[in-house]
Predict the 3D structure of the following.
Amino acid sequence: MKNENVPWTKKYFPKRISEVCGQDDALKALSNFISKFGRGKARAAILYGPSGTGKTAAVYAIAADLGFEVLEVNASDFRGSDEIRAVVGNASRQASLFGRQKLILVDEVDGIAGSEDRGGIQALAKVIAETRFPIVMTAGFKQDPKEVHWDSKFTSIKKGAVLIRFGKLETESIYRILSKISKKEGIKVSDDSLRKLARHAWGDARAAINDLETFALDSKNPDEFIDALGERNKEEPMASALVKVFKTVNPKIAASAFNNVAEDPDMQFLWVEENIPREYRDSLDLYRAYDELSRADVFRGRIKNRQYWGYLRTIELMITAGIAIAKDRKYDSPADYREPKRLLEIWITNAKYIKRKSIAHKFAKKTHCSSAEATQLLPYLKVIFKKNKKQAGLIAETLELDDEEVEWLEK
Ligand SMILES: Nc1ncnc2c1ncn2[C@@H]1O[C@H](COP(=O)(O)OP(=O)(O)OP(=O)(O)O)[C@@H](O)[C@H]1O
Ligand SMILES: [Mg+2]
């Protein structure tokens, strides 16, 4: 049953508890909470931990094994509290359609924290207090929610909830997941490569599966490709993240390229800009890539000018998926990406500009003219500093110029 349009993370989403790798303690705690619901005090559970570690998967797998129907509500879909109340509130009071037990999943509950959506959280807290069905929430917090500083917003929903931690997955667990998938897909890839991919994912099974899919679909020789990856430390280096933008035409895979990099969006933008001409040779590909980049830049401007931070994800998608699909087909050239030069140039220009400004300022103060007028006289000062060392020395002393300023005038 091969369906090429379904990403492997969906295709191999665990259907049973036995298919969830690792996370034994968390699975036990969650099964306990769900099967004992109503008898214990807990009304809700919060599963927390980094991305791609099986939080959402665990809910579905356990629900399937225990015979619960899952009603999924994505907290970030809701703007106002009315909607949350309408869906979750009603659902929690109605019996299930086929008399089956119901479980309510509020996936990515941390999504409503950023939107100052106190109303939404309060509504949710109310539903939790009244619910007749177990409510399971997932959150991408890496730390214990008790220790997170924005904790106060969640106090109400945390009350009476069991906290269940999902840690980063062990390399061995990820390796097992990858190994199973590659067997089912009939991919010719060595164990070494799979282990390397597993390490490379840094505890994130979703990232590992996506990587495997990229390399299996987009490369004739996955082993060679994976070998070129380089080891990953805590954060993925930009040069390796860019492989997922440039060496695929699959927007879904490219979209997650910058998930684990340390660089901020401005730096990501510069990296992409720097490397487009290193990768894309065809003029139409280049044209489309730069066109996409310039559109992303418009959104960057909107963030800077109007603080529309919501555009961050838009920009990320444009400079990953947008750039990936700007090409007709991928290039066979080896991946060799460079750090952006432009940043250095900006820095140098700034440094020059600062010198010029400080000299003009000192000159203006001594001669009682404006800084603008003084700036216009700087070229004459430069001539003096080049031709007449004695007079230059006098001027430097009078204006109290420092060594770097003198050097700037002499150049
Ligand atoms: N422990 C695991 N065992 C097997 N597969 C896993 C495991 N963890 C993650 N996966 C795979 O990775 C993908 C993502 O998993 P899941 O959606 O459960 O992550 P998550 O922890 O909910 O992440 P996020 O916080 O980003 O929502 C799924 O396709 C699933 O197949
Ligand atoms: Mg999830």
User: Anything to note?
Assistant: The chain has four domains: 23-165, 170-232, 233-340, 343-410.
